[in-house]
Amino acid sequence: MSAATTTAARPGVLTLCLLHVRFQFLETVRVPIAVIGNLVFPALAMFFFVVPQDAVAGDPLQSTVAVASLSLFAVCSACLFSYGVGVAEDRQQPFDPFVRALPAGPLPRMVGRIVNGMIFSLFGVVPVVLIGWLFTAAAPSAIQLLVGVVTLVVVAVPFTLLGLAVGYSLPAKAALPVVQVILFPLAFAGGLFLPPFLFPAWLDTVSELTPTRAARDVLVQTLTGEPAYAYAWVVLIGWAAVFAALAVAAYRRDEGRRFR
């Protein structure tokens, strides 16, 4: 294929990606509860478990850590439900085999799914940040907040890949409880609901090996300057590699079963 042909083909791929982003966004917002659910739970957790505690809400450091932890929970929840349950539900639709068999390949649809997952993940962060700003002493600078958002997108990668692995491995009825079983233990073990300094020594050691704890500490470092533990990025990258391998294997296995 000549360079001219390749260059001419690029706008077509970009156009298809944008169409899938738009289509999947509209598909999601037409079911408001799918958006509202992701907004409400982290915000309620912030409002009922952080704001009433003067020792936390009145301390700039602790309140910022709480905002970071619950923002990460919102992102993890959105990633696992959007990709895990969402992909599993899509696979059951009669239209899905047709779309996957189109000559455009999996890239435009995958890009649309990932971009929308990031959009709705960040939607879930907005009420947590607003509550932290209005009702607590959390006051990161504008630069810290901007870098924090970028960090959230980066640390969401392992959870995106994990969601895709679940979604392409299981039917929707099984994906929902599996996502719940994965999400809440990871959130607790990662210190998203209870600060890790309250953990016993053995649980703190286990916690540092989880992707949620690594992501939490990296995000807290971005927003407060408190250093993350030494190998947090190693843990994040390691889990991302494992989940990527699982997602690719699940996708290929599903394609082999349905399109052989």
UniProtKB/TrEMBL annotation:
<keyword id="KW-1133">Transmembrane helix</keyword>
<dbReference type="InterPro" id="IPR013525">
    <property type="entry name" value="ABC2_TM"/>
</dbReference>
<feature type="domain" description="ABC-2 type transporter transmembrane">
    <location>
        <begin position="20"/>
        <end position="222"/>
    </location>
</feature>
<feature type="transmembrane region" description="Helical">
    <location>
        <begin position="63"/>
        <end position="85"/>
    </location>
</feature>
<dbReference type="GO" id="GO:0043190">
    <property type="term" value="C:ATP-binding cassette (ABC) transporter complex"/>
</dbReference>
<dbReference type="Pfam" id="PF01061">
    <property type="entry name" value="ABC2_membrane"/>
</dbReference>
<protein>
    <submittedName>
        <fullName>ABC-2 type transport system permease protein</fullName>
    </submittedName>
</protein>
<dbReference type="GO" id="GO:0140359">
    <property type="term" value="F:ABC-type transporter activity"/>
</dbReference>
<feature type="transmembrane region" description="Helical">
    <location>
        <begin position="228"/>
        <end position="251"/>
    </location>
</feature>
<feature type="transmembrane region" description="Helical">
    <location>
        <begin position="31"/>
        <end position="51"/>
    </location>
</feature>
<feature type="transmembrane region" description="Helical">
    <location>
        <begin position="178"/>
        <end position="199"/>
    </location>
</feature>
<dbReference type="GO" id="GO:0046677">
    <property type="term" value="P:response to antibiotic"/>
</dbReference>
<feature type="transmembrane region" description="Helical">
    <location>
        <begin position="142"/>
        <end position="166"/>
    </location>
</feature>
<dbReference type="InterPro" id="IPR051784">
    <property type="entry name" value="Nod_factor_ABC_transporter"/>
</dbReference>
<dbReference type="InterPro" id="IPR000412">
    <property type="entry name" value="ABC_2_transport"/>
</dbReference>
<keyword id="KW-0472">Membrane</keyword>
<keyword id="KW-0812">Transmembrane</keyword>
<keyword id="KW-0046">Antibiotic resistance</keyword>
<feature type="transmembrane region" description="Helical">
    <location>
        <begin position="114"/>
        <end position="136"/>
    </location>
</feature>
